Amino acid sequence: MLIWINGAFGAGKTTLATELKTRLPDALDYDPEYVGYLLTKWVPAPESHDFQDLPLWRRMVAQFALGLWEEYQRPLIVPMTLVNARYRDEIFTALRAAGVPLLHVFLDVPAEEVRRRIVEQDVIDGAPQADDTREFRLRNVDRCVAARADLTADTLVLDGGRHTPSELADLVQARLS
């Protein structure tokens, strides 16, 4: 099973992923953002400066997830903001076509709460949050929160502003059962 945890920057994706990892110790962590970091070293940046706008990023994300799935036959936990419906469908269609079972989880958090979390967050992946990263995240809050309107019916939408990480993990595990 691939568990894709989606939502705005600051919605709690990484926190939920960490909680799920304690409950699914055999699961592999996969952060597609690192695919983007890799590409930004060698390919021209898109005009938007968002590596998700690179078709190669989307293909590589799906292929890497598929490779992990096929090679290790273990659950994958993927915390990644993916709000462009066309991009999401492109990646998810490729995974499903390859036979990867997929649970798409969307953490729904009000925009004002997301902004508060981004402003207060000092550390991302163990490193201080750079001002340009914070500004990128803040500029995209409304777009990320609005993505809820474009979700497919099979998406597990969870209230990330009301539930604790443990409660969210309980809800995800209940869907997996």
Q: Strands, helices and their partners?
A:
Blueprint: E1 2-7, H1 13-23, E2 28-29, H2 33-42, H3 55-72, E3 76-79, H4 85-97, E4 102-108, H5 111-120, E5 123-124, E6 127-128, H6 131-139, H7 141-146, E7 156-159, H8 165-176
Parallel strand pairs: 1-3, 1-4, 2-3, 4-7
Antiparallel strand pairs: 5-6
Protein name: TmrB-like protein
InterPro entries: P-loop_NTPase
In a few lines, what is going on in this structure?
InterPro entries: P-loop_NTPase. It comes from Virgisporangium ochraceum. The chain has 177 residues and is of the alpha/beta class.
Could you characterize what this model shows?
- With 177 residues, the chain is an alpha/beta fold.
- The protein has a single domain, classed as P-loop containing nucleotide triphosphate hydrolases (Rossmann fold, 3-Layer(aba) Sandwich), CATH 3.40.50.
- Helices cover 50% and strands 15% of the residues.
- The chain has eight helices and seven strands.
- It has helices at residues 13-23, 33-42, 55-72, 85-97, 111-120, 131-139, 141-146, 165-176; strands at residues 2-7, 28-29, 76-79, 102-108, 123-124, 127-128, 156-159.
- The strands form two sheets. A five-stranded parallel β-sheet has the order 2-3-1-4-7, with helices on both faces.
- A hairpin with a 2-residue loop joins strand 5 (123-124) and strand 6 (127-128).
- The longest helix has 18 residues, at 55-72.
- The N and C termini lie close together (11 Å).
- The mean pLDDT is 93.
- Pfam families: AAA_33.
- InterPro entries: P-loop_NTPase.
- This is TmrB-like protein.
